Amino acid sequence: MTIEYKNNDSFIDGISLKKIAADFGTPCFIYSHNDLVKNFSEIKNVFASEKRKVFYSVKANSNLSILKVLLELGAGFDIVSLGELERVIKIGAQPEKIIYSGVGKSEEEIIRSLEYGIHCFNVESFSELERINSIATKLNKVAPVSIRINPNIDPGSHEFISTGVETTKFGINLKNMMDAFIYANNEKSIELLGIDYHIGSQIESLDPFKEAIVSVKKIVDQLKENNINIKLIDMGGGLGINYQNNDAPSLNDFGKTINQVINDNELSDYDFIIELGRSIVGNVGYILTSVEYIKKDSEKNFVIVDAGMDNLIRPALYDAWHEIKPITDNKEQNILCDIVGPVCECTDFLGKDRRLSVQQGDLLIISSCGAYASSMASNYNSRPKPSEIMIKNGEMHIISRKEKINDLFSREIIVS
Ligand SMILES: Cc1ncc(COP(=O)(O)O)c(C=O)c1O
Prior knowledge:
Elements: E1 4-6, E2 9-12, E3 15-16, H1 17-24, E4 28-32, H2 33-47, E5 52-57, H3 64-72, E6 76-79, H4 82-90, E7 98-100, H5 107-116, E8 120-123, H6 126-138, E9 143-150, E10 172-173, H7 177-186, E11 190-196, H8 207-225, E12 232-234, H9 251-264, E13 271-276, H10 278-281, E14 285-296, E15 301-305, H11 314-318, E16 324-326, E17 335-340, E18 349-356, E19 363-366, E20 387-392, E21 395-400, H12 405-408
Parallel strand pairs: 4-20, 5-6, 5-13, 6-7, 7-8, 8-9, 9-10, 9-11, 11-12, 12-13, 15-17
Antiparallel strand pairs: 1-2, 2-3, 4-14, 14-15, 14-19, 16-19, 17-18, 20-21
The structure holds pyridoxal-5'-phosphate (PLP).
Pyridoxal-5'-phosphate binds at residues 57, 59-60, 78, 101, 198, 201, 236-239, 275-279, 371.
């Protein structure tokens, strides 16, 4: 998606950003319905079939309207909490199109998922497997599970999002996985469906994905030697997007490549699931923010905006880079600055060492804020969460209203 500059303003899908700021205030999130449909359709068209399903990883952006759009396009859902489960149920997802990942599933979460009848638990430890077995037995149900293995593959992304290396908490390592498969295969209250992995996020090369499929083929063969037959391979998510001048593969190339590697490794008879988050929603979203102050210093200039790390924590958390531009097409790049928020932390920055032509009161647009922005947002410094707007068919739709100040303490009880 490109932002269009026109008449001293910018437009996303034909809607003026000045108008959005006037109608909804800043900061606010803006999403393009058009781009959301385009992204999901791109991967669905190349990958989805009777045996291959595209799931959406809810943690990337869990807004109900975003989920509903994806549901209508045919997505299944990868969830990691009771909250995410109830979100996808609320928008009408069928339980058999829900898979449950995550290392810390509570009893309550397992019970609720079994009651709904979800498609599969992606089990991350032996003790979780025992807990699911015991709950399913008590409820007189059979729990469908895949074993999440940790294939020890370095996806080449930031350390904090490289989940497929053995030093992380995710999955069961190759040494111990067979015990889990054997247990799951033998217990009456468990139906062993398959194998699952997720090697990391913001992966910018297709090689780690290929490597993972080759590694899974070896595991499938090992399972067969132990008379364990599975039918499902869940490949997780992880495809990166372009934030800067990086060159992430397209969804189309990703889909084509994994199809090819699945076939090359004689795995075509298996059911496959992919669980994409960032590559579906990342470049669909923006944050519109206003410049509150410009602080000129001898050492450094600071452009202080009304969005902060409470709205977009990725720069603080991963040193992530987001494009930040004034909404007016002023080509003069006249100050070298850090763009920072109002939150009282040194890590409250949105961009560092940028050249911007900017004045107090200007509007700036921050790109690639569709994934892991609003879903990671907080109320730190008692700042209300902003409005979220979806542009659909040339119209603005509010999909999350701005929190009111009263919302901030509505759960709190003053002890006298
Ligand atoms: C188990 C699992 N599946 C899928 C995803 C989605 O990853 P991404 O947004 O990189 O596609 C994640 C994200 O961390 C995850 O933990």
